């Protein structure tokens, strides 16, 4: 993901500040709040009789292609050109909900992978919008996938399955760890694979040399909650953020936990049991309070590699999203021992009118696009801190009719072409709203 640059990056990195325990916020005084502009947006569907919404948005490594998985079982492909998002393709073939989406490695820049509850994983060539590889799990739903070189992995009910992409044949399966749906699988560059499940277990296996269950299991942590999403972060990808079904947030030093050279312990160093409340406190103590009077749901996390900073993306039902820094406290042995939330440093507002499902950062934003987002208002939005690009977007929106498939950008123009209403009745857990799961 791209680096988000802030005016006081260098100064902030030199400040020694001991974060408070993970149950408190904010952990520092509010600073200047960055407000990127929605310079362009595109509707994923114009059929108001059958409204749909966006599950996930991603950009290619080069940033010249944006993919969006949509609730009508398709993947939309957009090309950013200045402030415009041009629809350049549509991937059709799944008959069930798309549960995961990824671009292949830089050696295959023209391929996108999607998995679905229809029991398939499909590798698409975006130039022809046709499938080039297809893997099927009969009688099961596929909830997640990940690939490393020629190996493809998928999470199903109680199993992690592997295929050799060179031959298209199954390689192995891990079926002794999880008892329920494996909602997330992700490869680390070392050949380890991390899996998370609705059974509350997150497991690490090293499949770089073998697929034998007894040989490859390395570590596990039980967070006693359904794993909805996780991501590796840190310069070596050695830390893990986890978002659960009740929107608690956990941080884990999984790479240290699997190292024979490090003293034992599960290395979980933060447990935000009331993450939305804590993020709400952080927003209320900043100039983002008027944009996010409360945090209704969590979008996920973004890691900024150059500054080694993790952000919790916190959303309001009306479409605003705040970037809330998570400040980590190292202990005497170099491992992290605690974390706290600080006041948000940036907020996206004025693009979406409903729940935002996904945000993906793609650059610094000061000289081009910053990130893209997708939501339940059927919009894919592109954001920037570049005033020139923002002005170009405003000029295009005011210039009259836009090309087919494009919606006007900006606050006032956005209201001219509203998306469908929220598609789901909000579930309540402990009396609080919870974002519905995509599957």
Write structural notes for this entry.
The N terminus and C terminus are likely disordered. With 439 residues, the protein is mostly beta strands. The protein has six helices and 32 strands. Helices cover 9% and strands 42% of the residues. The strands form eight sheets. It has a five-stranded antiparallel β-sheet.
Helix content: under 10%
Given as residue ranges, the uncertain stretches (5+ residues, pLDDT < 50) are 1-21, 400-439
- What's the total number of strands? 32
Mean pLDDT: 85
The N- to C-terminal Cα distance equals 25 Å
Compute the number of helices.
6
Beta content comes to: 35-45%
The gross shape turns out to be globular
Radius of gyration: 21 Å
Produce the secondary structure layout:
Elements: H1 9-13, E1 37-43, E2 54-59, E3 66-70, E4 75-81, E5 84-91, E6 98-103, E7 111-116, E8 120-125, E9 130-136, E10 144-148, E11 151-155, E12 160-164, E13 169-174, E14 182-187, E15 192-197, E16 201-206, H2 213-216, E17 217-222, E18 227-233, E19 239-244, E20 249-252, H3 254-257, E21 268-272, H4 275-284, E22 297-304, E23 309-315, E24 321-330, E25 336-341, E26 346-348, E27 356-361, E28 369-375, E29 379-384, H5 387-398, E30 406-407, H6 411-416, E31 427-429, E32 432-434
Antiparallel strand pairs: 1-29, 1-30, 2-3, 3-4, 4-5, 6-7, 7-8, 8-9, 10-11, 11-12, 12-13, 14-15, 15-16, 16-17, 18-19, 19-20, 20-21, 22-23, 23-24, 24-25, 24-26, 27-28, 28-29, 31-32
């Amino acid at each position: 993901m791209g680096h988000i640059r802030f005016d006081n990056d260098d100064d902030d990195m030199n400040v020694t500040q001991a974060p408070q325990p993970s149950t408190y916020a904010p952990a520092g005084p509010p600073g200047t709040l960055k407000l990127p502009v929605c310079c362009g947006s595109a509707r994923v569907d114009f059929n108001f009789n059958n409204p749909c919404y966006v599950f996930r948005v991603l950009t290619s490594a080069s940033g010249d292609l944006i993919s969006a998985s949509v609730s009508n079982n398709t993947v939309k492909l957009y090309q950013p050109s200045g402030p415009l998002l041009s629809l350049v393709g549509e991937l059709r073939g799944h008959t069930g909900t798309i549960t995961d989406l990824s671009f292949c490695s830089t050696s295959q820049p023209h391929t996108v992978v999607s998995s679905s509850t229809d029991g398939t994983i499909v590798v698409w060539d975006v130039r022809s919008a046709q499938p080039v590889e297809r893997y099927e799990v009969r009688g099961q739903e596929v909830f997640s996938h990940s690939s490393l070189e020629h190996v493809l992995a998928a999470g199903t009910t109680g199993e992690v399955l592997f295929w050799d992409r060179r031959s298209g044949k199954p390689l192995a399966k891990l079926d002794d760890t999880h008892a329920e749906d494996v909602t997330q699988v992700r490869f680390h560059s070392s050949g380890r694979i991390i899996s998370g499940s609705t059974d509350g277990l997150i497991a690490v296996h090293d499949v770089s040399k073998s697929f034998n269950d007894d040989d490859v299991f390395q570590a596990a942590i039980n967070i006693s909650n359904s794993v909805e999403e996780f991501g590796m972060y840190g310069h070596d990808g050695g830390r893990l953020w986890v978002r659960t079904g009740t929107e608690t947030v956990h941080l884990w030093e999984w790479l240290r936990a699997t190292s024979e050279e490090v003293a034992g312990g599960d290395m979980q160093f933060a447990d935000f049991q009331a993450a939305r409340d804590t993020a709400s406190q952080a927003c209320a103590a900043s100039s983002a309070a008027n944009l996010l009077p409360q945090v209704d749901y969590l979008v996920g996390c973004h890691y900024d590699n150059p500054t080694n900073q993790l952000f919790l993306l916190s959303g309001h039902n009306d479409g605003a999203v705040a970037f809330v820094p998570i400040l980590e406290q190292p202990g005497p042995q170099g491992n992290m021992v605690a974390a706290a939330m600080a006041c948000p440093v940036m907020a996206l507002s004025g693009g979406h009118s409903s729940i935002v499902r996904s945000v993906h950062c793609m650059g610094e934003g000061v000289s081009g696009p910053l990130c893209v987002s997708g939501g339940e208002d059927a919009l894919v939005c592109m954001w920037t801190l570049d005033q020139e690009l923002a002005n170009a977007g405003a000029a295009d929106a005011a210039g009259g009719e836009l090309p087919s498939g494009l919606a006007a950008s900006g606050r006032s123009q956005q209201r001219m072409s509203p998306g469908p209403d929220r598609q789901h009745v909000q579930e309540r857990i402990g009396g609080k709203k919870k974002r519905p799961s995509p599957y």
